Amino acid sequence: MSEHAVYIVRCRDGSLYTGYAIDVEKRLATHNAGQGARYTRARLPVVLEYTETFPTKSEALKREYAIKQLTRLKKERLIQGGRSSHESNKQF
Q1: Where are the domains of the chain?
Q2: CB 3.0–4.6 Å: which of 42, 54, 70, 78 could bond 60 by disulfide?
Q3: CATH 3.40.50.2000 given to domain 4-87
Q4: Cβ distance 6 to 48 under 8 Å?
Q5: What is the pTM for the complete model shown?
Q6: CB-CB neighbours of 40 under 10 Å
Q7: In this protein, which residues make up the domain named GIY-YIG (predicted)?
Q8: Sign of the CA dihedral 26, 31, 34, 37?
Q9: pLDDT tens digits for range 22-33
């Protein structure tokens, strides 16, 4: 059974990008190889700041959407809160 993850990376310019992946480390490598999202290609390198894991793709995509709706300040607080994949499925 694969894990479905939502992640936040910090780009070189300090901006934050939120995405979905089954294998976050592989996705991070793809971003840094310049083959990821168009947004990150112009802002390399990216550094992983935050992850949450979910049992289903549906749950992960819903959380990705919710995080993308947050203000930058709330995303920074989420990152600073130190929540990780070990504490997934918590609503903020």
Answers
A1: 4-87
A2: 54
A3: no
A4: no
A5: 0.86
A6: 22
A7: 2-77
A8: positive
A9: 999 999 999 999
